[in-house]
Design goal:
33% of the residues lie in helices and 34% in strands. The chain is an alpha+beta fold. The protein has one domain: Nuclear Transport Factor 2, Chain: A (Roll). Strand 3 and strand 4 form a beta hairpin.
Length: 162
């Protein structure tokens, strides 16, 4: 059996080398490109997750921009809008009714909105126990969410979506 000439393999090897060199690396179980900036964004999401589990309102607020604003999906109805101060009140109300909670966040995608803003899409599994003797069992809420983070100096902070 005759072997093909070496020069006939050169184009195939060039394509193989080029395709390996262009492979995008993703952060585990996400569609998020593995970059230093993206890792910093995911770190903020993880810090938020831990602060929620710990019911640490101040840590959550520290991760939130002073420009934070939320319109809970009703842009035409300003009666349910809230800013950072309103976020504090909502967290205080929510956490006061919870005996224990667990939050799992699986980030799916990041969308660069502009130079200093990014949207993060994630799926979450929120398990909680109410602080009521009549509700000792765990409850579960699974959904998807989208938050927007803004870069303020070297730090990423939540701008909306909480």
């Amino acid at each position: 059996m005759a072997h093909p000439p070496i020069r006939s393999l050169a184009p195939a090897l060039a394509v193989l080398v080029a395709s390996v060199g262009c492979t995008t690396r993703y952060i585990g179980n996400t569609q998020v490109e593995d970059t230093e900036e993206n890792r910093a964004i995911l770190l903020v999401i993880e810090q938020y997750r831990r602060a929620v589990e710990d019911r640490d309102i101040q840590r959550i607020l520290d991760l939130t921009s002073e420009d934070f604003f939320e319109d809970p999906g009703t842009p035409g109805d300003p009666s349910d809008d809230y800013d950072k101060r309103g976020l504090r009140q909502k967290l205080e109300e929510s956490f006061s009714r919870i005996a224990d909670q667990r939050l799992r966040i699986d980030v799916r995608k990041l969308h660069q909105l502009d130079r200093d803003r990014v949207a993060v899409e994630y799926r979450f599994d929120y398990r909680y126990k109410l602080a009521l003797p009549s509700a000792p069992e765990w409850r579960e809420f699974i959904d998807v969410n989208r938050v927007v983070l803004v870069r303020e100096g070297e730090q990423w902070r939540f701008l909306s979506g909480l």
